Amino acid sequence: MPAQNISIAGNLAEVRKRIARAAERAGRSAEEITLVAVSKTFSADAIRAAYDAGLRVFGENRVQEFESKQPKLADLLDATWHLIGHLQSNKARRAVHLFHQADSIDSLSLAQRLDSAAAAESKRLPVLIEMNLGGEATKSGAADGDLHALAEGIEKMSHLELRGLMTIPPYSDDPDAARSYFRKLRKVRKALSEQLGRTLPTLSMGMSHDFEVAIEEGATEIRIGTALFGERDQRV
Predict the structure, then answer these.
(1) Structurally, how many domains does the chain consist of?
(2) Per the domain annotation, does 235 fall within a domain?
(3) Which residues lie closer than 8 Å to 168 by C-beta, 6 or more apart?
Protein backbone atom coordinates (compact mmCIF):
# COMPACT_ATOMS: atom_id res chain seq x y z
CA MET A 1 0.00 0.00 0.00
CA PRO A 2 1.42 3.45 -0.92
CA ALA A 3 2.69 5.57 1.99
CA GLN A 4 0.01 8.21 1.34
CA ASN A 5 -2.74 5.62 1.73
CA ILE A 6 -1.25 4.36 4.99
CA SER A 7 -0.99 7.91 6.34
CA ILE A 8 -4.56 8.85 5.48
CA ALA A 9 -5.93 5.55 6.80
CA GLY A 10 -4.07 6.08 10.08
CA ASN A 11 -5.26 9.67 10.35
CA LEU A 12 -8.84 8.57 9.70
CA ALA A 13 -8.66 5.94 12.43
CA GLU A 14 -7.47 8.59 14.90
CA VAL A 15 -10.15 11.08 13.83
CA ARG A 16 -12.84 8.43 14.27
CA LYS A 17 -11.58 7.70 17.79
CA ARG A 18 -11.81 11.39 18.63
CA ILE A 19 -15.33 11.57 17.15
CA ALA A 20 -16.40 8.58 19.24
CA ARG A 21 -14.97 10.07 22.45
CA ALA A 22 -16.60 13.46 21.83
CA ALA A 23 -19.93 11.82 21.03
CA GLU A 24 -19.73 9.73 24.21
CA ARG A 25 -19.09 12.85 26.30
CA ALA A 26 -22.22 14.40 24.79
CA GLY A 27 -24.33 11.27 25.27
CA ARG A 28 -24.58 10.81 21.52
CA SER A 29 -23.77 8.10 19.01
CA ALA A 30 -20.84 8.56 16.62
CA GLU A 31 -23.12 7.22 13.88
CA GLU A 32 -25.13 10.45 14.08
CA ILE A 33 -22.18 12.44 12.73
CA THR A 34 -21.22 12.70 9.06
CA LEU A 35 -17.52 13.23 8.39
CA VAL A 36 -16.99 15.42 5.32
CA ALA A 37 -13.42 15.00 4.08
CA VAL A 38 -12.33 18.47 2.96
CA SER A 39 -10.27 17.69 -0.11
CA LYS A 40 -9.76 21.21 -1.44
CA THR A 41 -6.19 21.72 -2.74
CA PHE A 42 -5.48 17.99 -2.44
CA SER A 43 -4.91 15.84 -5.50
CA ALA A 44 -7.24 13.27 -6.99
CA ASP A 45 -4.79 10.62 -5.79
CA ALA A 46 -5.14 11.83 -2.20
CA ILE A 47 -8.93 11.76 -2.52
CA ARG A 48 -8.77 8.22 -3.89
CA ALA A 49 -6.59 7.19 -0.94
CA ALA A 50 -9.20 8.62 1.43
CA TYR A 51 -11.92 6.76 -0.46
CA ASP A 52 -9.93 3.53 -0.19
CA ALA A 53 -9.67 4.15 3.57
CA GLY A 54 -13.47 4.18 3.77
CA LEU A 55 -14.51 7.81 3.34
CA ARG A 56 -17.47 8.55 1.08
CA VAL A 57 -18.38 12.22 1.65
CA PHE A 58 -16.04 14.91 0.35
CA GLY A 59 -16.06 18.71 0.43
CA GLU A 60 -14.59 21.00 -2.20
CA ASN A 61 -14.35 24.80 -2.08
CA ARG A 62 -14.10 25.81 -5.72
CA VAL A 63 -16.02 24.76 -8.80
CA GLN A 64 -13.08 25.14 -11.15
CA GLU A 65 -10.71 23.12 -8.97
CA PHE A 66 -13.12 20.22 -8.63
CA GLU A 67 -13.85 20.29 -12.37
CA SER A 68 -10.18 19.53 -12.97
CA LYS A 69 -10.17 16.58 -10.55
CA GLN A 70 -13.61 15.07 -11.17
CA PRO A 71 -12.75 13.16 -14.40
CA LYS A 72 -10.09 11.24 -12.45
CA LEU A 73 -12.65 10.31 -9.79
CA ALA A 74 -15.70 9.55 -11.93
CA ASP A 75 -15.52 5.84 -11.10
CA LEU A 76 -16.15 6.50 -7.39
CA LEU A 77 -19.86 6.08 -7.95
CA ASP A 78 -20.95 6.02 -4.30
CA ALA A 79 -18.95 9.11 -3.30
CA THR A 80 -20.92 12.25 -2.42
CA TRP A 81 -19.53 15.67 -3.24
CA HIS A 82 -20.41 18.78 -1.22
CA LEU A 83 -19.65 22.34 -2.29
CA ILE A 84 -18.53 23.95 0.97
CA GLY A 85 -16.97 27.20 -0.26
CA HIS A 86 -18.50 30.49 -1.31
CA LEU A 87 -20.16 30.18 -4.70
CA GLN A 88 -20.35 32.97 -7.26
CA SER A 89 -23.78 33.15 -8.86
CA ASN A 90 -22.35 32.87 -12.38
CA LYS A 91 -21.03 29.39 -11.52
CA ALA A 92 -24.36 28.05 -10.26
CA ARG A 93 -25.04 25.90 -13.33
CA ARG A 94 -21.63 24.24 -13.17
CA ALA A 95 -21.96 23.70 -9.42
CA VAL A 96 -25.33 21.98 -9.76
CA HIS A 97 -23.90 19.68 -12.42
CA LEU A 98 -20.87 18.71 -10.30
CA PHE A 99 -22.07 18.55 -6.70
CA HIS A 100 -24.65 16.54 -4.78
CA GLN A 101 -25.13 19.25 -2.13
CA ALA A 102 -24.33 22.95 -1.64
CA ASP A 103 -23.44 23.80 1.95
CA SER A 104 -22.80 27.55 1.66
CA ILE A 105 -25.95 29.37 0.54
CA ASP A 106 -25.83 32.93 1.83
CA SER A 107 -28.26 34.96 -0.31
CA LEU A 108 -31.63 34.68 -1.97
CA SER A 109 -30.16 35.60 -5.36
CA LEU A 110 -27.70 32.70 -5.18
CA ALA A 111 -30.48 30.33 -4.13
CA GLN A 112 -32.58 31.45 -7.09
CA ARG A 113 -29.72 30.80 -9.51
CA LEU A 114 -29.18 27.33 -8.05
CA ASP A 115 -32.89 26.57 -8.19
CA SER A 116 -33.02 27.51 -11.88
CA ALA A 117 -29.91 25.45 -12.62
CA ALA A 118 -31.31 22.45 -10.75
CA ALA A 119 -34.58 22.74 -12.66
CA ALA A 120 -32.66 22.64 -15.94
CA GLU A 121 -31.08 19.36 -14.83
CA SER A 122 -34.33 17.94 -13.41
CA LYS A 123 -32.55 17.70 -10.06
CA ARG A 124 -33.49 18.50 -6.48
CA LEU A 125 -30.43 19.89 -4.72
CA PRO A 126 -30.01 19.68 -0.93
CA VAL A 127 -28.62 22.93 0.49
CA LEU A 128 -27.45 24.44 3.77
CA ILE A 129 -27.59 28.10 4.70
CA GLU A 130 -24.20 29.42 5.81
CA MET A 131 -24.38 31.76 8.81
CA ASN A 132 -21.75 34.41 9.57
CA LEU A 133 -22.21 34.37 13.33
CA GLY A 134 -18.95 36.20 14.03
CA GLY A 135 -19.85 39.17 11.84
CA GLU A 136 -16.49 38.89 10.08
CA ALA A 137 -16.24 41.09 7.00
CA THR A 138 -13.80 38.69 5.36
CA LYS A 139 -16.20 35.74 5.54
CA SER A 140 -19.32 34.97 3.57
CA GLY A 141 -22.53 33.91 5.22
CA ALA A 142 -25.97 35.24 6.01
CA ALA A 143 -26.48 37.60 8.93
CA ASP A 144 -28.92 36.76 11.72
CA GLY A 145 -31.44 39.29 10.50
CA ASP A 146 -31.54 37.84 6.99
CA LEU A 147 -31.95 34.19 7.91
CA HIS A 148 -35.71 33.84 8.16
CA ALA A 149 -36.47 35.57 4.87
CA LEU A 150 -33.77 33.54 3.12
CA ALA A 151 -35.05 30.25 4.55
CA GLU A 152 -38.64 31.02 3.65
CA GLY A 153 -37.55 31.95 0.13
CA ILE A 154 -35.72 28.65 -0.30
CA GLU A 155 -38.74 26.75 1.00
CA LYS A 156 -40.73 28.08 -1.96
CA MET A 157 -38.18 26.80 -4.50
CA SER A 158 -39.20 23.46 -5.96
CA HIS A 159 -35.69 22.32 -6.87
CA LEU A 160 -33.87 23.13 -3.62
CA GLU A 161 -34.23 21.25 -0.36
CA LEU A 162 -33.18 23.17 2.75
CA ARG A 163 -31.48 20.67 5.08
CA GLY A 164 -30.01 22.89 7.78
CA LEU A 165 -27.34 25.40 8.72
CA MET A 166 -23.57 25.74 8.52
CA THR A 167 -21.07 28.09 10.18
CA ILE A 168 -17.34 28.70 10.46
CA PRO A 169 -16.62 30.63 13.68
CA PRO A 170 -13.75 33.11 14.07
CA TYR A 171 -10.50 31.18 14.32
CA SER A 172 -8.84 30.75 17.70
CA ASP A 173 -6.00 28.54 18.88
CA ASP A 174 -8.30 27.58 21.73
CA PRO A 175 -10.96 25.18 20.37
CA ASP A 176 -13.27 26.00 23.25
CA ALA A 177 -13.51 29.60 22.02
CA ALA A 178 -15.78 28.30 19.24
CA ARG A 179 -18.24 26.76 21.69
CA SER A 180 -20.47 29.83 22.00
CA TYR A 181 -20.82 30.04 18.19
CA PHE A 182 -21.67 26.35 17.88
CA ARG A 183 -24.20 26.66 20.69
CA LYS A 184 -25.76 29.68 19.01
CA LEU A 185 -26.08 27.89 15.67
CA ARG A 186 -27.87 25.02 17.40
CA LYS A 187 -30.34 27.46 18.97
CA VAL A 188 -30.83 29.31 15.68
CA ARG A 189 -31.60 26.02 13.93
CA LYS A 190 -34.14 25.12 16.62
CA ALA A 191 -35.91 28.47 16.21
CA LEU A 192 -35.86 28.19 12.42
CA SER A 193 -37.25 24.65 12.53
CA GLU A 194 -40.14 25.92 14.67
CA GLN A 195 -40.74 28.79 12.25
CA LEU A 196 -40.80 26.49 9.23
CA GLY A 197 -42.78 23.79 11.01
CA ARG A 198 -40.41 20.99 10.11
CA THR A 199 -37.14 19.39 11.15
CA LEU A 200 -33.85 20.67 9.76
CA PRO A 201 -31.61 17.64 10.24
CA THR A 202 -28.18 19.09 9.46
CA LEU A 203 -26.00 21.20 11.74
CA SER A 204 -22.67 21.54 9.90
CA MET A 205 -19.96 22.95 12.15
CA GLY A 206 -16.49 22.04 13.35
CA MET A 207 -13.21 21.53 11.53
CA SER A 208 -9.91 19.80 12.28
CA HIS A 209 -9.00 21.98 15.28
CA ASP A 210 -12.41 22.27 16.95
CA PHE A 211 -14.66 19.42 15.76
CA GLU A 212 -14.79 17.75 19.17
CA VAL A 213 -16.31 20.89 20.71
CA ALA A 214 -18.74 21.06 17.77
CA ILE A 215 -19.85 17.47 18.39
CA GLU A 216 -20.40 18.25 22.06
CA GLU A 217 -22.63 21.13 20.95
CA GLY A 218 -24.71 19.06 18.54
CA ALA A 219 -22.94 18.98 15.17
CA THR A 220 -24.34 16.39 12.78
CA GLU A 221 -21.76 17.14 10.07
CA ILE A 222 -18.08 18.02 10.59
CA ARG A 223 -15.61 19.16 7.92
CA ILE A 224 -12.15 17.65 8.33
CA GLY A 225 -9.19 18.40 6.06
CA THR A 226 -5.81 18.80 7.73
CA ALA A 227 -6.39 16.10 10.34
CA LEU A 228 -6.98 13.62 7.51
CA PHE A 229 -4.77 14.73 4.65
CA GLY A 230 -2.03 16.68 6.44
CA GLU A 231 -0.96 20.23 5.67
CA ARG A 232 -2.35 21.61 2.45
CA ASP A 233 -0.36 21.63 -0.77
CA GLN A 234 -1.18 25.07 -2.16
CA ARG A 235 0.31 24.15 -5.54
CA VAL A 236 -2.64 21.86 -6.42
Answers:
(1) 1
(2) no
(3) 130, 139, 141, 205, 207
